[in-house]
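Supplementary Text 2. Reproducibility record for the structural model of the 221-residue chain.

All settings were left at their defaults, and a single model was retained for analysis rather than an ensemble. We include the record here because the model underlies the residue-level annotations in Supplementary Table 4.
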Amino acid sequence: MRSKITSVLTVIGAVTILVLAANTAAMAATGKGFLLGKTNKTSKVSTLSRTAPGPALSLKTKKVSDAPLAVNGSGKVTNLNADKIDGIDSSALGTRALVWAYAGSSSASATHTYTIKNLPKGSYLFSYEVFLRPSTYTGAGNLDCYLQRDSLYAGEQGAPGQTIGTAVTGNAVMTLVATADVHLSCSVSSGTSTWEFTQAQPLRITAVPINALTLKGAPQS
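Retained model, structure tokens:
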């Protein structure tokens, strides 16, 4: 008889433990332990602090393509430092425009060439601004300025001004397959006039990196 009573009490005890465990697993309230594989709810923020150097939390998925974290809010996360956004490295974000400005004055010459040394490979949208004034004027044809890398690109012309000077601007898209030098050359097409610029009338070259170029064929004639 005692054996049967003991067995019944054992079963009742086991059932009680299972019921309590089920209730605990169903709702992890504020102040309770964090339950894996269950929905945890709390009315207060949860903080995990590591007392030694290194990450405070590590999330790992079965496949590297799986998202290690999911959120349902669109609010801004203060101080969040992300390495990539939509698969793009953070260094590729933004315009990152590169600007070279000649600070000083140029000597009188019929030809002026300025070089951007060791520009990293990639595609760039170049633009330039030049204002040259005549140092000596003995007649001249057009004042031509070109961006150059092996061959000529982005040629722009200005009619030389005998007294005031000539402003020339231009732009071009270039793709450098390797690190290379890019030159800006300005010269007169004829005559022996010489040209110069001062610090108040600078020369500036701007290069904006482009991630990729999409070729759309030729425009209609």
